[in-house]
Amino acid sequence: MRRRLNLIIVAPVIVFLSVAWRIGADIQAQRESQKVSSAERLDLDSRAQKAFVIARETVAGCRQAKNGSSWNYRYNIHMDGSALVVSVAVNLVPAGGVTPMDLDKAKLTWEEGIERIWSGVFALETESGNRYPVIVDVSFRGPGFDHQVIVRPGSGRTDELNWNIQDRPELVAHEFGHMLGLYDEYEGGALAPQHGVIDPESIMASNPTRGAVAKARHYELFRQWFVRKTMMRNVRIIHEKASHE
Ligand SMILES: [Zn+2]
Q1: Domain ranges, ordered by start, for the chain
Q2: Per the omega criterion (within 30 degrees of 0), is the bond before 143 cis?
Q3: Cα 131 to ligand 1 centroid, rounded to whole Å
Q4: Which of 31, 34, 106, 238 has the most CB atoms less than 10 A away?
Q5: How far is the CA of 124 from the centre of ligand 1 (A)?
């Protein structure tokens, strides 16, 4: 009995230690860096960039908007060595009248549209100037899923969990924003309870068309996650493409 109890206590400790080890050298380096000078800290940050790994976590919850509407958000987030990766797996369930061929075609268009708008557009920049692009990866393949969406024929009303086969990529990219926990940004929409934003350029505007864009504020929760994990200070969200154009 005593031996069995010991095992019960020791096993979680081993799991914890191996997870902590896998979180990677950069976190260790960051903790160490708090004891050293800022010059040394910059050096640790730049050396660590090559293998910056933070284990994957699932972030989920419920949003309640000012107008009373509510929805669930859920995504997975990790640092893969050089980028912050946010991934969401969506199960597209065809309603009657949607053929497998229709659905396959829509999947291609929607994946391209969602990733064009959300992925590789912004980056996190650390105090020492290192940049970690935010990669957003949507997948419609299983086996596990974060959300389930009914796909109807034609072009009816669209919300987070009900899409229509003719929906433009911008429209599903807007609904994808709700899956990341974002609020609407138009009068009459599901605005944030405090400090609701109205922005016609935003992908979270009403009925977004080509030209609608993601904004730095949409990445704030990812930035906060990164700061909690690394304990780095002065991490900013910057436009990744600005300097390449
Ligand atoms: Zn919306």
Answers
A1: 51-239
A2: yes
A3: 30
A4: 106
A5: 26
